[in-house]
Specification:
By secondary structure, this protein is α+β, with helices and mostly antiparallel strands. It is 17% helix and 32% strand. The strands form four sheets. Strands 5, 7, 8, 9 and 11 form a five-stranded antiparallel sheet that branches. A four-stranded antiparallel sheet has the order 3-13-6-10, covered by helices on one side. A two-stranded antiparallel ribbon has the order 1-2. The longest helix has 17 residues.
Length: 237
């Protein structure tokens, strides 16, 4: 492990602005001690899923995760402290359904921006889908200035074919092509899991919208495998 003193990074192996092959981002330096804390926290988060493929996904997303943390550091001038963070110091967590439309992802407090366009917070990923009718799993909203997220993959923990088979990202007004999802395990022997082709990084003050396309009418529980980086005071229960 090492420190990263440079203040500008060029990110190639992630989607920051759709259509751009690489993006230069002004970030904050990060110390070797902070990197150690981040790696320790990522080990805990990845192992909590008890799935080797998800752990490998986190490793594959390292550049995007590190850049996201440093990008938020540039906005806050605060250390990454992990579980020891307090106040404006930084931590990283898995995205929860109730975070969609909340104060971190929806900094403008716009209405009807909760999961799938709901008018109030939703505490489960479970949703009823209609074939051929796309659904905004994250309606359009603007990230808080002191936060970022990294979308890495998706699971559907209902042990039957997931109703969704495509996903599209819109970041800062630019839209990706629809990406195929393969969440069709039926026997319970494997977790229906899909790593995205590249991680999608949504930085401070950027807008995002994510919608999925169902091919059958049924209930599903597609869950975004997304890391949320924010200040400790915004991550309290």
């Amino acid at each position: 492990m090492r420190s990263y003193p440079e203040k500008t990074v060029t990110l190639k192996n992630a989607v920051v602005t759709p259509g751009q092959e690489e993006v230069s981002i002004d970030v904050e330096a990060i110390s070797e001690e902070e990197v150690k804390r981040l790696v320790t926290k990522l080990d805990v988060l990845a192992n909590a899923r008890q799935n080797e493929s998800i752990a490998a996904m986190v490793v594959n997303s390292w550049d995007a995760i590190l850049t996201a943390v440093r990008w938020v550091k540039a906005e806050t001038a605060q250390e990454f402290k992990g579980i020891k963070a307090v106040g404006k110091q930084l931590d990283i967590v898995w995205l929860r359904p109730e975070d969609v439309g909340g104060s971190i992802l929806n900094s403008a407090s716009a209405s009807n921006k909760y999961l799938y366009g709901g008018s109030s917070a939703v505490y489960t990923w479970l949703h009823s889908f209609t074939a051929g009718t796309k659904d905004d799993i994250i309606p359009e909203q603007k990230m808080k200035e002191e936060a970022a997220c990294v979308h890495m993959g998706m699971i559907d923990t209902i042990t039957a074919p997931s109703p969704v088979d495509r996903i599209t990202f819109e970041v800062s007004g630019q839209i990706t092509p629809a990406q195929s999802l393969s969440l069709t395990h039926t026997d319970g022997s494997a977790l229906p899991f899909q790593e995205f082709e590249l991680p999608v990084l949504v930085g401070p003050k950027q807008t995002q919208e994510i919608y999925v396309d169902p091919y059958i009418t049924k209930d599903g529980r597609p869950e975004l495998l997304t890391f949320l980086i924010a200040m400790a005071e915004d991550l309290t229960i």
